[in-house]
């Protein structure tokens, strides 16, 4: 018989039972069966609300008192929604969060970095978000990536004929590229206003799948010739590429001259190279659709890419993509020094 799930808080009666059963030597799993609760619920209750919050089994019994536990649970529930206020009361914590936000770090990454760096202060991502939405932190909300971009409904694209000579399907890509177990596998794409018009200045973007590293280069047009020129410049700055994955855009017709195994997504399936698509969304934070890259300086493009590569990533253990690339020696020795960011 399947046990019905319950999501109600423990009450005073249940806490009295827990104390009595612990004093009688009952194991936590036995207590859970008697109270018809999940074992994890009982374990968290004992660990969180014991007088000294000891976690070793041989020291738990005797520390748990039902009255103390009920009071602690009440206080935690009452003041949980005010956790964000400690950011206002701690100058060092507040300044750290402000500095990270102005460097385009997300609240989740800021919280994770505090733990990784063993900072003397801490705030959860929920507390940071609540502080941001208060009148004290609203001025920093424009730095939030999530406030700028929201998922849009996908529209069906009309059938379009494209011709890529010697096209190799994504299905033939190696396992090391598919499961992100090897460095050196990249995805590529372009950004530009009115891509179909000749002479359009564009931005070539590539993305390293395992390190989440982004490279970009302005190109004179979105023609295959200029696309390959930009790719060669990018290749000169990173460790030799093992593969490249593209969509079926006409700028990729000259892929055979890149000297790298190239693979192509299925028609109208850009989600198959989701890494570079996500990188494009982050870049669009600074260069909205319709941007004429002919009016954007090379220095500003480099600054934007540096900001994104210095952004801490939860998927990288709250390290930045640049940190990972440097640790794995995936940047050429004469790679330019990072542009100075705030702080």
* CATH homology group of the largest domain: Ribonuclease H-like superfamily/Ribonuclease H
Order of helices and strands: HHHHHHHHHHHEEEHEEHHEEH
State the name of the first-level CATH class of the largest domain. Alpha Beta
CATH second-level architecture of the largest domain: 2-Layer Sandwich
Which shape, going by the Cα principal axes? elongated
Helix proportion of residues, in percent? Answer: 25-40%
In terms of DSSP E residues, the strand content is 5-15%
State the end-to-end distance.
Answer: 59 Å
> Low-confidence parts, pLDDT < 50 over ≥5 residues?
53-61
Q: Class by helix and strand content?
A: alpha/beta
Q: Provide a count of the helices.
A: 15
Largest sheet: 5 strands, mixed
Mean pLDDT: 82
Number of domains: 3
Strand order across the biggest sheet? 3-2-1-4-5
- CATH fold-level topology of the largest domain: Nucleotidyltransferase, domain 5
Number of strands: 7
Rg (CA only): 27 Å
Task: Characterise the protein shown here.
This protein has 343 residues and is of the alpha/beta class. It has three domains: 12-81; 84-145, no CATH class; 170-327, Ribonuclease H-like superfamily/Ribonuclease H (Nucleotidyltransferase, domain 5, 2-Layer Sandwich), CATH 3.30.420. 39% of the residues lie in helices and 10% in strands. The protein is built from 15 helices and seven strands. It has helices at residues 12-23, 28-35, 39-49, 57-60, 66-79, 85-89, 91-102, 107-116, 125-132, 145-148, 175-178, 224-235, 274-284, 298-309, 321-327, and strands spanning 185-192, 202-208, 213-219, 243-246, 262-264, 312-313, 319-320. The protein has a five-stranded mixed sheet, sandwiched between helices. Strand 2 and strand 3 (213-219) form a beta hairpin. Helix 8 (107-116) packs across helix 9. It is elongated. It starts with 11 loop residues before the first helix and ends in a 16-residue tail after the last helix.
